[in-house]
Please model this.
Amino acid sequence: MNQNILRSTSIALADVLGNPGPADAKLGKFFREHREFGNKERGWIAEAVYGVLRRRSFLAYLAGNEDPRRLLVAWLVRVQGNSLRELDELLNQQQKEWAQEIKAKSTDGLSPAIQADLPEWLWERLESQYGAEEALAIARSMHKSASLDLRVNLVKSNRDEVLARFNSEKAGAEATPYSPTGIRLPQRMSINRHPFFVDGKIEVQDEGSQLLALLVAPKRGEMIADFCAGAGGKSLAMGALMRNTGRLYAFDVSEKRLHNLGQRLKRSGLSNLHSQVISSESDPKLKRLNGKFNRVLVDAPCSGLGTLRRNPDLKWKQTPNDITELTAKQTAILTRAAKLVKAGGRLIYATCSLLAEENEQVAEAFLAAHPQFKLVNAAEILAQQQVELDTGTYLKLLPHQHETDGFFAAVFELTN
Ligand SMILES: C[S@@+](CC[C@H](N)C(=O)[O-])C[C@H]1O[C@@H](n2cnc3c(N)ncnc32)[C@H](O)[C@@H]1O
Model:
């Protein structure tokens, strides 16, 4: 790597820090506009940009400000632990002086929010919810990048076949600890051209997300709705659990996301999945489906704070006001989706948030307003699915404990 790469990285970082929009989309655009970089250089730039986003407040403290170049120098010296000699080719004279100054800076007495690398409001919420020690452990576990988890598509393959193939390629693949269909690769690698991916034998899916599909526990021949299907990660997992029988409706307000689901559907070999764009949760199209479903999954739009290993920019973008708006939306979607459930059927509410406001509080308010639904123990359902994981009545996955993204889920059953 050379000074030119560092200059380009600081341009990409300035865009990600200074403008609205998701970091991955901005970085994608940057690479499309800078085709001169090869795979190795792109990897380096992405790692540096994400590395800074994960430790932004710690690095800003060390750098003295948020100048992207100073943040990058601080990341190289204090997070990556590079010596000044190792950085000789990469830094210009002025940057070498910054590096020296940053290396010598004491970090004694840093505030907990800076240690956790969270905005103050978010640190306060996590601390009051989990206690200081666990909140810090959760936050720190998200300073690292996530492993690459794959889901084996049981309609086309099995876990042994996929494990054997990746291990013959020396990819260091392992079975995931909880999901019976999961495989974990230690390194992020480009999987899109892998023959098993092209053939639809595998999908990229975090183990936590796979567990949510198992928690829905759809059976062969049933009517299932995925109310917020997005690009269909959980729809595809559920369709495979149903062994391509029954009927699975994938709803979403985003035509673009459902279009992406369509692309993945072709590879999956599933024919039991029907996607439908809705205008909102109160789309009149839904009326004819009231009381028809054995299972309805609401994988609600949320703050995404459980996915900070992948999307570290979210912690700097969300505001307390966003959380208030999201909880109102989550409640409205859950309330409407509940009408689709048939007697004896189940409604599953899920988020990838860590905040009680979006999780337990939404679930409790729903139960209070809908006495015809009762809460079902998530650990018991998972045990029936051969998954040994007991996080209590609710499913609560935390990155520092389960090495998955942070997820919450509550299962409600409509009494006969
Ligand atoms: C957490 S994402 C879903 C992820 C998806 N289930 C998966 O596993 O890949 C939430 C989704 O809710 C959708 N959404 C937002 N408002 C909605 C609404 N009122 N009704 C249905 N879907 C909605 C968003 O477009 C987004 O795709």
